[in-house]
């Protein structure tokens, strides 16, 4: 089977690594000449709005998926005329726009912080009177890894904030005083079957995910699964979706969803019976879903800007390196490592060794 992937970054690369043993072949469409996934398949170097090359992709594959939500929903809608695309354009329109997703959460009775649509500085000034301070101003689309957002602590920081974010449609949200950040990665098959991985505790640095540690029997697992299932079913979603939450007062507060395989699920490659990448491919191709059960204890550490010396990393017992083959650059995810152990105590020892190399 040939699968087209819109986007040629590390997520596309890991999809291909998971699909190759299943006999799948991949074609990536990405405007970057040095797209790191190109080493794992054919590469159509073209813009996401280039209909001629999108049609070329559709003619060569059995179905299409995408590796990140900054792909225009119109691109997915166009491709859907010629080839099946999973997830669909409707799901992408919701998930790539923060206002749309927050509105959906409200509709589905998923707990969410107060928010307001912001289309001008005047809107922002007015909304601050209702939302209060501190608050977070975010662009509705294209923001990720801490980009496209600004925390507003005082009235002085409100002035000019809309222009600072590019004078584009934004959303203002109450700043959430959370005790932890968690995410749930789940997969929904064409048949409607849903399977969820264990809830993961995440640590961010400068808005970029640094550490993910899956738990065991987390007290909020069922609540998180209920939220994710309601979104998956409402959107008639097919594939992997990640849902990020804040832990607040012993409960969950929705942050955002990602309609794709997700950074906080990278641990599943070595740490679960079936990885998020393989399960995404199983779902979109109509194959049976794999088990989401953990294989002991594990933790995933992102490498931002550079990758430590490989010979030092591999001295750590049961450390699994994933080098993305991307040029090193400040603030850029260029690789990750997952460590695995049979005990939490041993995992913490290994994790300290790994973190000492960063």
Beta-strand residue percentage: 25-35%
Along the chain, the helix and strand elements come as EHEEHEHHHEHEEHHEEEEEHEEHHEHEEH
The CATH architecture of the largest domain is 2-Layer Sandwich
CATH H-level superfamily of the largest domain: ATP-grasp fold, B domain
Q: Helix count?
A: 13
- What CATH first level of the largest domain would be assigned? Alpha Beta
Q: Note the main sheet.
A: 9 strands, antiparallel
Number of strands: 17
In total, the number of domains comes to 3
Structure report:
The chain has 358 residues and is α+β, with helices and mostly antiparallel strands. It folds into 3 domains: 2-85, 3-Layer(aba) Sandwich (Rossmann fold); 114-174, ATP-grasp fold, A domain (Dna Ligase, domain 1); 180-355, ATP-grasp fold, B domain (D-amino Acid Aminotransferase, Chain A, domain 1). It has helices at 10-19, 51-60, 73-79, 89-95, 98-107, 121-131, 155-158, 161-164, 221-234, 268-271, 276-285, 310-313, 344-355; strands at 2-6, 25-29, 42-44, 63-66, 115-118, 135-139, 149-152, 170-174, 180-188, 194-196, 200-205, 208-214, 239-248, 251-258, 297-304, 319-323, 333-341. The strands form 3 sheets. Strands 9, 10, 11, 12, 13, 14, 15, 16 and 17 form a 9-stranded antiparallel beta sheet that branches. A 4-stranded parallel beta sheet has the order 3-2-1-4, with helices on both faces. Strands 5-8-6-7 form a 4-stranded antiparallel beta sheet, with helices on both faces. Helix 1 (10-19) crosses helix 11 (276-285) and helix 3 packs antiparallel against helix 4 (89-95). The longest helix is centred in the middle third of the chain and has 14 residues, at 221-234. The two termini are 39 Å apart.
């Amino acid at each position: 089977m040939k699968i087209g992937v819109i986007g040629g970054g590390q997520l596309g690369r890991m999809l291909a690594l998971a699909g190759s043993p299943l006999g799948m072949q991949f074609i990536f469409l990405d405007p970057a000449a040095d797209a790191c996934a190109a080493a794992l398949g054919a590469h159509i170097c073209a813009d996401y709005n280039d209909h001629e090359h999108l049609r070329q992709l559709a003619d060569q594959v059995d179905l299409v998926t995408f590796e990140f939500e900054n792909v225009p929903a119109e691109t997915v809608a166009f491709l859907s005329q010629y080839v099946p695309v999973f997830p669909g354009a409707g799901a992408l329109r919701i998930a790539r726009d923060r206002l749309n997703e927050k509105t959906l959460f409200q509709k589905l009775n998923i707990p969410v912080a107060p928010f307001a649509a912001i289309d001008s500085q005047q809107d922002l000034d007015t909304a601050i009177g209702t939302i209060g301070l501190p608050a977070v101003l975010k662009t509705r689309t294209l923001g990720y890894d801490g980009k496209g957002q600004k925390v507003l602590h005082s009235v002085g920081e409100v002035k000019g904030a809309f222009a600072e974010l590019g004078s584009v449609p934004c959303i203002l949200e109450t700043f959430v005083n959370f005790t932890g950040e968690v995410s749930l990665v789940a997969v929904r098959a064409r048949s409607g079957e849903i399977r969820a991985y264990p809830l993961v505790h995440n640590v961010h640095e400068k808005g970029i995910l640094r550490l993910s540690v899956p738990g065991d029997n987390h007290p909020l697992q069922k609540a998180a699964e209920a939220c994710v299932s309601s979104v998956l079913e409402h959107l008639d979603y097919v594939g992997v979706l990640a849902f990020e939450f804040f832990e607040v007062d012993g409960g969950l507060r929705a942050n955002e969803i990602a309609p794709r395989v997700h950074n906080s699920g990278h641990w599943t490659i070595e740490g679960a019976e079936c990885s998020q990448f393989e399960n995404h491919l199983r779902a979109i191709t109509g194959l049976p879903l794999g088990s989401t059960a953990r294989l002991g204890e594990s933790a995933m550490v992102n490498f931002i800007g550079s990758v430590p010396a490989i010979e030092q990393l591999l001295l750590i017992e049961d450390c699994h390196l994933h080098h993305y083959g991307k040029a090193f650059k400040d603030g850029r995810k260029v690789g990750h490592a997952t460590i695995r152990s049979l005990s939490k105590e041993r995992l913490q020892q290994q994790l300290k060794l790994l973190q000492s190399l960063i």
